[in-house]
Amino acid sequence: MRKAIAKRRRLLANSGKAAGILSGIARDRVDQLFEYGRHLGLAFQIVDDILDFTESSETLGKPAASDLRSGHLTAPVLYALEEQPSLETLIAREFAEDQDLDRALTIVHETGGIERSRDLARHHAEIARQNLGHLEPSESKDALDGLVDYVLRRCN
Hints:
Layout (H helix, E strand, L loop, with lengths): L1 H22 L3 H28 L2 H4 L5 H4 L5 H9 L3 H6 L7 H11 L2 H18 L8 H15 L3
């Protein structure tokens, strides 16, 4: 799963870079498009991590909290661990006791893990947007900017 996530980020980053190269723009601007894609991909992934805790299994098309069940420590969990170290015990024993997973989910929701993750997604989205600053106003630039908005709307 983590390989698929890294591939998604690289795909977005390299797609931005390829578009710049094919457009014949200067190397520093190609690098900015790469950074746009990289940070958009990071924001997208963080939002996916948030949705794993805030959406239903029906909406997600997979079991809710599936990353946590699988032992993947995503941004909401890492932030929750900072505030509530007892979460580590539940994770370490792989939710072996009856109420472990429910308690872990409660901890993630009651701490600032989800909101701090939203802030992190917004941060990466803003960096992505800043990397569009060199582009002339156009429909293409508007579309790229719109992707940033789309990613953030998914978790609000």
